[in-house]
Amino acid sequence: MFAASLLSPLDAATEHAMPLRAVPIQGAFEPLDAPGRRLLAARDGIYVEACSDALYVRVRCVAMHTPYGETSEALTLRGPRIPKAFARTLMERSLAVHPREMAALIVADAVDPSGYRLIEPEATGYVGRVTYADHGYDEARLVIDAHSHGPYPARFSGVDDESDHSRCGPHVSMVFGHCADRPSTKVAARVCVGHYLIPLSDDLWTELFA
Questions:
Q1: Beta carbons of 58 and 47 less than 8 angstroms apart
Q2: Is a pLDDT exceeding 90 seen at residue 210?
Q3: Is the pLDDT of residue 122 over 90?
Q4: Phi, psi for 144 (deg, rounded to 5)
Q5: 14-38: per-residue pLDDT in tens?
Q6: How far apart (Å, rounded) are the C-alpha atoms in residues 60 and 66?
Q7: Which of 42, 45, 154, 177 could share a disulfide with 23, CB 3.0–4.6 Å?
Q8: CB of 116 closer than 8 Å to CB of 86
Q9: What is the rounded distance in angstroms from the CA atom of residue 136 to the CA atom of residue 77?
Q10: What distances in angstroms separate CA 186 from CA 66, 143, 153, 176, 180, one per listed residue?
Q11: 128 Cα distance to chain centroid
Q12: CATH of 84-208, one of 3.60.120.10, 3.40.50.80, 3.40.140.10, 3.40.50.1820
C-alpha cells in the first residue's frame, strides 16, 4: 500500500472506507473480528470481506489469478444458527399472500431465546411490488431481508438493487418466486455489502439455518 502521506484526500478516504489487503502466502490470515469491511486479493481473485454485530461474510466478487495466498468463501453468524422455523415462516408468508408480495426481516436479538427475531414490517403488497416501513430495528443486527415476487421468478429487480445498495451491510437478501404453491416456489439469495451484491450458492445460505 502507498504511504498515507502520498495519498490524495479522495484516495485516503477510499482506503479508509474500503481497505485492500493481500491474503498472505505463508503467514496466518486474520479475518475481521470487529465491524468493518475490506477487499482481499487472494490466489483466485478479489473477495469482499465484511463483519457486523450479527454476520461475517467473505465472498469472491472477481475471479482472477494473483500471486497472493489462498482463502475461501464464508458466511458465518456471530451468534447461534437461525432456527429452521424462521425459514418455514418466510415460505408460508410468501405462499399465503400470493399473488401479492410480502416482506420480512430477521434480526439478531440477544433477548429472544432463539437469538433472533422475525420482523414483519407494516407493508403494502401488490402483484409485482411491495412497499414496507424500513425502520424500527438496528441495521447492524440485520441478518436477512426477505421478500416475495408472487407469480414472478425468484430474481432480483432494479428496485431490489436500489434497496440493498442503501444499506452498508453485510446482510443476506432473499427473494421467493413462483409462489403459487410450495413445489413451484424457488428462492434466490445474495450477500449485500454496500455497492457489492453477490449471488450466494444454496450451500452457503442454507447453512445459516439449523
A1: yes
A2: yes
A3: no
A4: -130, 130
A5: 888 899 999 999 989 999 999 999 9
A6: 13
A7: 42
A8: yes
A9: 22
A10: 36, 20, 8, 6, 10
A11: 22
A12: 3.40.140.10
Q: What percent of the chain has pLDDT over 90?
A: 80
Q: Tell me whether the omega of the peptide bond preceding residue 99 falls within 30 degrees of 0, making it cis.
A: yes
Rounded to whole angstroms, the Cα distance separating 80 from 208 reads: 9
Cβ(155)–Cβ(149) below 8 Å: yes
Residue-range domain boundaries for the chain? 4-77, 84-208
| Residues 141 and 115 sit within 8 Å (Cβ to Cβ) | no
Per-residue pLDDT at 2 exceeds 80: no
Residue with cell 481497505: 19
SS3 of 73-114: CEEEECCCCECHHHHHHHHHHHHHHCCCCCEEEEEECCCCCC
- Cis omega (within 30 of 0) on the bond before 183? no
